[in-house]
Amino acid sequence: MANKLLALSLSLCFLLFGGCLALREQPQQNECQLERLNALEPDNRVESEGGMIETWNPNNRQFRCAGVALSRATLKRNSLRRPFYSNAPQEIFIQQGNGYFGMVFPGCPETFEEPQESQQGEGRRFRDRHQKVNRFREGDIIAVPTGVVFWMYNDQETPVIAISLTDMGSSQNQLDQMPRRFYLSGNHEQEFLRYQKQQVKGREEQDNEGNNIFSGFKRDFLEDALNVNRHIVDRLQGKNEDEEKGAIVKVEGGLSIMSPPERQPRHHSGSRQEEDEERWQPRPHKSRREQEQEDDEKHGRPHHKGGSRWQDNGLEETICTARLHQNIGSSSSPDIYNPQAGRIKTITSLDLPVLNWIQLSAEHGSLHKNAMFVPHYNLNANSILYALKGRAWIQVVNCNGNTVFNGELEAGRALIVPQNFAVAAKSLSDRFTYVAFKTNDNAAIARLAGTSSTLSGMPVDVIAATFNMQRNEARQVKSNNPFKFLVPPRESERRAAA
Amino acid sequence: MANKLLALSLSLCFLLFGGCLALREQPQQNECQLERLNALEPDNRVESEGGMIETWNPNNRQFRCAGVALSRATLKRNSLRRPFYSNAPQEIFIQQGNGYFGMVFPGCPETFEEPQESQQGEGRRFRDRHQKVNRFREGDIIAVPTGVVFWMYNDQETPVIAISLTDMGSSQNQLDQMPRRFYLSGNHEQEFLRYQKQQVKGREEQDNEGNNIFSGFKRDFLEDALNVNRHIVDRLQGKNEDEEKGAIVKVEGGLSIMSPPERQPRHHSGSRQEEDEERWQPRPHKSRREQEQEDDEKHGRPHHKGGSRWQDNGLEETICTARLHQNIGSSSSPDIYNPQAGRIKTITSLDLPVLNWIQLSAEHGSLHKNAMFVPHYNLNANSILYALKGRAWIQVVNCNGNTVFNGELEAGRALIVPQNFAVAAKSLSDRFTYVAFKTNDNAAIARLAGTSSTLSGMPVDVIAATFNMQRNEARQVKSNNPFKFLVPPRESERRAAA
Amino acid sequence: MANKLLALSLSLCFLLFGGCLALREQPQQNECQLERLNALEPDNRVESEGGMIETWNPNNRQFRCAGVALSRATLKRNSLRRPFYSNAPQEIFIQQGNGYFGMVFPGCPETFEEPQESQQGEGRRFRDRHQKVNRFREGDIIAVPTGVVFWMYNDQETPVIAISLTDMGSSQNQLDQMPRRFYLSGNHEQEFLRYQKQQVKGREEQDNEGNNIFSGFKRDFLEDALNVNRHIVDRLQGKNEDEEKGAIVKVEGGLSIMSPPERQPRHHSGSRQEEDEERWQPRPHKSRREQEQEDDEKHGRPHHKGGSRWQDNGLEETICTARLHQNIGSSSSPDIYNPQAGRIKTITSLDLPVLNWIQLSAEHGSLHKNAMFVPHYNLNANSILYALKGRAWIQVVNCNGNTVFNGELEAGRALIVPQNFAVAAKSLSDRFTYVAFKTNDNAAIARLAGTSSTLSGMPVDVIAATFNMQRNEARQVKSNNPFKFLVPPRESERRAAA
């Protein structure tokens, strides 16, 4: 039950973490005295040979209040988002597509190793080994900790669209609030640099020779450090590379990525058809624990292991093999469900423990036409609402009782709902779908209407006195709406829609 | 012993919480370079039909340095402080009076249920149920977490006076430093709004239609969400309500609040006599744990359960039933006591675990005429000193050795003593009483005089060299004063006073 | 293995502390948009009769970005750094010399007691007792928590040089970012006051009468509080004391400090010879745990007790007797070692648990001529690099690929390397030695070259596509350099140097 889940999350964090402290930097004075919110589109787009990255302006007051930055990457087929790390944790939602991603945790072993008897094709003799590579699919949430190198790759026909929230206010970020991408390669500006330049306009600008973190080192330093020749150093530094190549590069002939033996061993070629998800099978020699976990994931059972299973783990089974992603999309098993109204799936650090590290969580929802998400507020988090499909009518109210937003949120736009501001939504499309990024790993909401809402928690006499109404009316306020989160459309609306 | 308590608190937090990190937002650059402190009075008063709310200006530099806001609510008889929530945790001290309070925790069950066989009076058939309602009395500290709806009610003749500290610097507040009250009802400005307006004077002001969080939603949204009629929605939105009604409303005939069966079952009518505290008895079918706790509270035994008792609890016995208040007033058993000097009672998260969640603690003290609280400093917290009764002569010294305050603190005024600033007090009244709110759930002080003080912790030779004095003098500095916290008046003063 | 250690530290903190949140205040907007770093020298020096204190300007943008303040104290023979406390935690590295230090933890017992049968010399009858006094030596890291009184004393011929990092951004500091020293004695300005005055130039300045925290109290307050006469109060307040005396005072005839019985009982006189470190032996009646710990320390075995050993401790064996210092100097057993390249020793909260409290760690390194520290970045911390001996050529690169530092760092200068900025170093001296203070108690680095580096963690095909190079070249990038941290000079350079 959703109620139980909320209670569970609050209770556990109260017990375990001293009360779910959000541990975030607060915005500057007055940044959150917002009298008008806007549904925002990206205001910049950087094209790359393999796709593009769109960014929302992090200097926008709403983003500054929430302490976050938002961007959207689109990867064409056989394209690689080049490795980079950030000065703040990221939570990425896969809006569309499938592919691979990797992260490199310093100090963790390279656990994916090529077999001794090397394959013949392409004349390779070198036995590669590297850290775990993961497969992602539409609807996945991926958690990227601060400073950890991340890359992703689209091996499918369908373009991959990934929405990334970077939490600048995180206490993991010891620099200032500007989002920074540190690219390991290439000769292109990092996507948020232009906003930084805007901010410090007056200052003289330095000419970059490279733009990636290798390009700033002197050539002989790198020759010595890597023990490679000048030519290779030039490649590392992105010398002579066309700036247009950008952060997402095309891979001719596709990448060959090691994958568990149960999958048909293959090198992705450009012509392969849409991959069958079912091919992902656990390895026979996989550990029981991994087996269980994958089974669970397939059957949509949630994991609530909060550390218990971990206690008998060795070191390398902890962070080095921590689960870094989980599906919350439409194909996952919802937490809140009403066939006439819609579905909601949340992901907190109880589902995906790595979220406790980055102190973020998320929610994925889908509403039928004219169905409502009851008025509610975020107890302990800012919420960054991004519309995936369709449109909804949203209202947001601040502490002065002012309507700070009253309008449509359509697919591709983002709306920031600050902590404690009241919000309600009504779908205007057959299926309005959204993802909400939340700046707390155990984000909780308080509902202002329906069963088990804030109003139902108060004595009927208190309600009556509070709202200056009859007990009979107070009773209606407490109990007329039998729904908790999602309210189906009225009979008449449903008939009209049918 | 107080010494042991301090050591205990430091040790435990070192072990359990990685060293009692205060987890608070720091003030802006220079905010704490205070060369002059003032004993401050409230600078605004908002009258309501059932009482009034006074506020201290949160833009005052001393309050900005401490990152807190202070207010004082007075509730007349049969008056209700309407439900609201805040963007930061509150610690409330009941200076005077008794009554009821409630909080609504989202996701927690409604555990107070009316019996099946409904009582006849007033024609009620509807069986009400709601979350726990608590009784408070003079001297109570009440902890209100961020975003949790809170209301209180005075059913007695004596007006209730409640001092509320809101900790804007808390990491639970993800918005900016301005205190915000989100009212669920009414048509009055939230008490801190005027300071927010002051700050952003230039900006055009929006006309509010309601002032509460329901008033910002469109009428049909609420009709759908609550499934109630237009008339009730108008009530929720505070339409047509007189702004003068305010945040504290009179309840005609008094509120009927469910109470445990041992209490004489009654509906409070306007004419009832002063309630007998003794009537509060545990229910026979109460769990053993609750029984014990209430017994403990009655006998003034402190709870140091730091989680141990909790480990065998189910979920609903954790946050949903957490103790939210505790008495530290003059009738409670003091932690530090000297019949000739006075008494001090502290409350930390070891006494009231919910304080760990809100990261605040408090101290209540009472000093006899001419008795002193030895010079000391707050190790890990700011202290907001509020005088309840009488007056004292206070001195505060900053890091430059400057006297930043040297004057009287009289009843009703507040003085902010920033972290690490040295402070000493001498009572000028027969009984100077104060409450100090501290911005750390395990606030500790270091004493600069007396037994077991900082000076006694150093070798006598170090003292002598440090202060350029003889060993014999250093010995006096270390040991002449046999008192630890409170120093009784000298013989001569005592005789004069008698 | 260093790899294992990194993994261990990350894993444990992930499990135990919810992911190593750094819990620090972020710098103001734009403070870290640094396009040019400088190797900085102290810009002020305050002479005292027993030595001097040099300070780096904390208003310098690089220090403001890192949120720290740096100072260097030099103590001549028989000189005492007078007791003081700070509004932020300090990490002190002993660059040179040996001596004693003490801290006073409020509420902790005085565990060093003089024997009943008092010694005759100097006519003392008074039986002194005080908190633990510790001996420090060259290469020690000393952790001083916020608000805890600290003093140190040099009883040797060699001057003591102590580098102190004060972490203003720590969440333990609830005041603003200005470093503050609260002196218990003397009549000198605290060493950082001049920078505070610079900042608030406009404001009228108050005349100090004392400068220490006793001087701001009125005389009769202190007479009453300490029960001492006027003359002694004058001494406490530093009245009539020459300002030139300063923060470090000469002790005529040396200090007599109680020390464990195994050491030759003696009162340090001015003429004693250089002390033999070997004289420090554990007491026979010492607990087994202490014995083990000291043995470990002698043999360089690290402690990874993370609480487990603590669980059977009483209270007084926790914070009151916590280890407060540990050696990481050249005589300690290194964590990373290559006889041709150099050595590195790190200290984290796993080595010295009190570092978890102050959320700082450190690294000590020594590089042979022409040896390199591979390009790397600090994952979760700012690093404050201070050169102890020799000089090195350092390069630092920001997120835009710009070289923000490319120059020499010579002994006595400090360089701030912000979180995630890439850095590499090459020694220009026979032995370049440094200490790096890190603003995270489990600071981790990610290496950009060599075995087990970030590059080796990625599949060879991803490297090839990322850097637009052949698989064969990618293979070289991954594996050509067989070293992990320190790269020895090339054959030719070594021969040239020999």
UniProtKB/TrEMBL annotation, chains A, B, C:
UniProt similarity note: Belongs to the 11S seed storage protein (globulins) family.
Cellular compartments per GO CC: endoplasmic reticulum; protein storage vacuole
Protein name as annotated: Legumin A
SUPFAM superfamilies noted in UniProt: RmlC-like cupins
Job description of the protein: Seed storage protein.
Keywords of the record: Disulfide bond, Seed storage protein, Signal, Storage protein
Top-level taxon of origin: Eukaryota
Chain ranges of the Cupin type-1 domain: 37-234, 326-475
Stored PANTHER family: GLYCININ G3, OS03G0336100 PROTEIN-RELATED
InterPro entries: 11S_seedstore_CS, 11S_seedstore_pln, Cupin_1, RmlC-like_jellyroll, RmlC_Cupin_sf, Seed_Storage-Functional
GO molecular function: nutrient reservoir activity
Species of origin: Trifolium pratense
Annotated stretches, region: Disordered: 251-313
Annotated signal sequence range: 1-22
Assembly and binders: Hexamer; each subunit is composed of an acidic and a basic chain derived from a single precursor and linked by a disulfide bond.
